[in-house]
Amino acid sequence: MSQVRTNSIVPIGGVPGGASGGGIIQTVSTTKTDSFTFSVSQGSFTDITGMSVSITPRSSSNKICVFVSLGSSGSGMDALYRIVRDSTVIGAGTAGTIGNGFNCYQGNDGGKVFSTGFYFLDSPATTSAITYKIQGTQTGGSGTVHIGRRQADSSAGYSNTIMVMEVSG
């Protein structure tokens, strides 16, 4: 005789309102294995090529948790990153004059890669396809930021990842 045993069954669209939420519905990720270099004026953000991912939420009440892991290098300035949903900046603070986002201290050593990781729990309230991407700037007036490599060595590559998870509401 066959048996099926389970503690619970969660619908593909997530747990209904009023029930315990938090189940992972789907996960999508992209890993960037090549390098990217950008030079922008302080506070002007640029898209980081290869650091975007698209997801179609199954329920408008579900949330999307965005996880980012980046390694960058530069001399004499810090890098500043932000998450953009379609064309809307999310998770950034509102204080400051340079630009708002997640800081990565790079110090004054182009021979090292400085890692940063950040995450944000978004409530997009849609079941349409959405794209999350990462943008970057630097905080030193002018300068060059190298993603996925050391400034002093263009042959050394490091991977960077953006991952999104749909979490039932």
Which terms summarize this structure?
169 residues, mainly beta, Jelly Rolls, 6-stranded antiparallel β-sheet, 5-stranded antiparallel β-sheet, 13 strands, 0% helix, elongated
Give a description of the structure.
The chain has 169 residues and is mainly beta. The chain has one domain: Jelly Rolls (Sandwich), CATH 2.60.120. The protein contains no helices and 13 strands. The strands form three sheets. Strands 1, 2, 4, 8, 10 and 13 form a six-stranded antiparallel sheet that branches. Strands 3, 5, 6, 7 and 9 form a five-stranded antiparallel sheet that branches. A hairpin with a 2-residue loop joins strand 11 and strand 12 (153-157). It is elongated, with a radius of gyration of 19 Å. The two termini are 37 Å apart. The model has no long low-confidence stretch (mean pLDDT 82).
Query: What's the pLDDT, averaged over the residues?
Result: 82
Please count the helical segments. 0
Low-confidence stretches: none
Beta-strand percentage range: over 45%
Secondary-structure element order, N to C: EEEEEEEEEEEEE
Based on CA inertia axes, which overall geometry fits? elongated
Which architecture does the CATH hierarchy give at level 2?
A: Sandwich
N-end to C-end Cα span:
37 Å
Number of domains: 1
CATH class value: Mainly Beta
CATH topology name: Jelly Rolls
Secondary structure: number of strands: 13
Helix content class: under 10%
Class per helix and strand makeup: mainly beta
Task: Provide the gyration radius in Å.
Answer: 19 Å
Identify the quaternary structure here: single chain
| Biggest β-sheet description | 6 strands, antiparallel
